Amino acid sequence: MQHVLPKGLKHLHDYGLNTRINPLTAVSGHTDKSLIFIKRTISQLLPFSFYSNFLVNYWAVLYHSHHGFIILHTLSQLKSGELAGTQRLKLSENLTSFPLEILSLADSLEILDLSNNQLTSLPQELVQLKKLKIIFASNNQFEVLPEVLGQLPHLEMVGFKANKIHSVPEHSLPAQLRWLILTDNQIKTLPNSLGERPRLQKLALAGNGLTHLPQSMSQLDNLELVRISANQLTECPEQLLSLPKLAWFAFAGNPFSQTKSAIQSVPVLPSSSFSLQDVLGQGASGVISKATWNNKYQTDFPEDIAVKVFKGEVTSDGYPDDELQACLKVGNHPNVVQSLAQVNEDGYLALIMNLIPSHFRNLGLPPCFNSCTRDTFSPDFTLSVEHIDKIVKQMEEVFVHLHSNQVCHGDLYAHNTLYDEEANIIFGDFGAASMYHMLTEAQQACIKQIEHRALCHFIDDLLSVCAEGNRDEKTFDLLKQKLSH
What GO MF terms are annotated (predicted)? Predict the structure, then answer.
């Protein structure tokens, strides 16, 4: 039986990497105390485990972003003048043309979400929106990234996921660009001007037809997160490997990163070996459910299991099959979600895992609009320096384990980590993972160095929530020293 969400929970759009996430509360205009209450309520209402972390944790984007959450508005509200002075506008009414009434908000509008319409173009008049910082237009019918975007002086976040874009003109990228999402389009080449956007920090290009990347990207000294999975790149992009701040890198599903055979480190079972029960969570690459064994299989494996049934489509991180293969290549580690078996039938791909005990909680919250690539935490969240030290030691062991198996996780974050009251951790979410055994030794060393930066950010983020009374201790200083290594 599928878990039934409480009345009032609605679909929530992921404004980060534009992945699709299952229902969460649509909230707006609440005080901090109200939002804290909402988070606790959601935590109690949903079955809480590692597998639902992206559901409950997505609250972070609502709470921590100074931009807040965008309520779905109506065109009639806009035309009536009811929305005068608003800073955030979201319209989804199967629009085929840009409503020029939006221009009446030129003095206030900072965030515009036109996702889930039928738009093919944006008018030149968009330049009147001088204060616009963020635009989303995912799931439309664009074939060309609109050049008018490049003329907006304060625009820094552009999200056009799941369109039909095949062309990105030289002048379509705004000068202040920090965050570009072009996942799941038909792009084969990118303009050299991409390398001339020095503020760029996050770049999502998975699921296109890219055959090469501009050499000018070697100038992107502030680029921290890159998704180039599920493209047609025949060579490892050397211009990215030497970027000084790159820390989160996903590149699976390209010809240069192809593996020759499927990994059989765990048994292959038929889908009839288990029955799916309550849904624990849903992410970009699949649905995770609690499950029970059928008949004879129950004696061969742990009784409590979870099953991730992968979707067949490309995600913000790449192909689901690459995620499965990376999970299997990593193998078992006490601080990593344990894979028990796989299902690989025609049209049905699944991973059977240990069910994580319910007393584990999320260590961090995902990045918000402002932090861009760095994790966030609840305002009242603190950790003792002893617990931070223990968590870091475990994550360092996980790091060594991953890279001894030549797997780059690509998403090493506190929000992908669970912990308990004794600071034991379980690490998971391999959606952005990439195997790299096929690369040269020099390239492999670069990949490991890139992910080591993510490990340093992980440590730095935890130190930011260290209890004030512990910050003068020697352990705190020793942890701080790790950041310079």
Answer: ATP binding; protein kinase activity
CA atoms of 148 and 171, how far apart (whole Å): 8
DSSP for 141-190, please give it. --SB--GGGGG-TT--EEE--SS---B--TT-S-TT--EEE--SS-----
Residues 350-363 have a mean pLDDT of 95
CA distance 33 to 38: 9
Least confident range from 65-74, 233-242, 257-266, 463-472: namely 65-74
On the question of pLDDT at 291 being above 80, the answer is yes
Tokens of 404: 């001894």
The number of residues in the chain equals 485
pLDDT digits (tens, 9 = 90+) for 388-447: 999 999 999 999 999 999 999 999 999 999 999 999 999 999 999 999 999 999 999 999
Q: Give residue 69's pLDDT.
A: 55
Residue that is written with structure tokens 């991730």 in the block: 308
Q: Which residues contact 380 (CB under 8 A, 6 or more apart)?
A: 36
Helices 474-481 and 441-463, packing angle to 10 deg = 150
Percent of the chain at pLDDT > 90 equals 77
Return d(Cα 290, Cα 281) in angstroms, integer: 10
pTM over 0.90: no
Q: In a 10 Å sphere around its CB, with 0-12 CB exposed, 13-18 middle and 19+ buried, how is residue 191 labelled?
A: middle
> CA 203, CA 206: separation in Å to the nearest integer?
9
Please give the DSSP secondary-structure letter assigned to residue 268: B
- Beta-carbon contacts of residue 212 (< 8 Å; ≥ 6 apart): 189, 233, 234, 235, 237
Helix, strand or coil, per DSSP, at residue 470:
helix
Task: Look up tokens 């969240």; give the residue.
Answer: 381
What domains lie within the chain, and their CATH numbers? Answer: 271-354 (3.30.200.20), 361-484 (1.10.510.10)
C-alpha 138, offset from chain centre: 16
In the prediction, which pLDDT does 39 show?
A: 44
Q: How far apart are the first and last CA of the chain?
A: 50
Look at residue 60 and tell me whether its pLDDT is greater than 80: no
